Amino acid sequence: MLYYFVSDTKISGGIKIAYQFVDALNALGIEAVIASPGGRAADWFHSHAAVVDVAAVRGSFRPKDIAVFSLPQDYASLREFPGQLVFHCQQTDHLIDPILADPAVLVLTCWKQATDYVQAYGVRDPLEAGISVAPCFAYTGEPKYEYAAAYMPRRGANLCEAVKSAYSTLRYVAIDCMREDEVARIMKYSSIYFATAEHEWFGLPALEAMSAGCVVVSVPALGGMEYLNDGVNCRVVGPQDFATAVGELLQEKSAVMRFRMRQAAVATARLYTTGRMMQRLSALLDGPLSSWRRGA
Q1: What's the pLDDT tens digit per position in 28-40?
Q2: In CATH, what number is assigned to the domain containing residue 51?
């Protein structure tokens, strides 16, 4: 059995990625579950993953079982387990370096910048498992409100407020504490999405907004630069130029550019579908992770 250990059920990209990974493994015939405190399941997005209590797992973990984790603080306790230990790398800073230095830990990465970091600081080459956007975000021609701008206020709220002060004609829609399907609905009718969270590891919401047909204005994101292509499928600007970049997009002469960026954004997001991630995982299960199939 593969257990993916999570710390809670809060709204965060890391929690969603964990459930997506378990869902994909189950669809590929691998027995996998989420191990969560109290057996509580995240209910703000759609998932078929079974959830078990962390406490119960700790008392019954077997040598043939697999423990997957993404938070560095879980390493110390999980390394004592008798089975295989897998680090699902979703951040790249020196907090993870002790994990990367352990030759007994298998490392899976979700994006290229994480792969590069692990190769630079780790003792084992990582396996890139990929990352995906949920199908509910896929744009299928829904009517767009040309001056509707969506944003998430929990990080980078100051940038959003600066834009609001400068451009009062926009219709601003805050996305906060919502279920995934409601987030997707808002993004599909919004024309622009502000990705204002600085120092994001990947920035999954921006990619979801691109899938939903938004023109994204983003601050630089560490891992996200693999899909953010300034001037082609989005705008990438520093915080000091953020409001100016939004103003340029709103100009009448920028209508054609907005259309082209939107088309390019949707095309980019199609490279991150669930189906593509499952193809990548399936190839790994036929190769370096074949032992997971034998244990299924």
Answers
A1: 999 999 999 999 9
A2: 3.40.50.11930
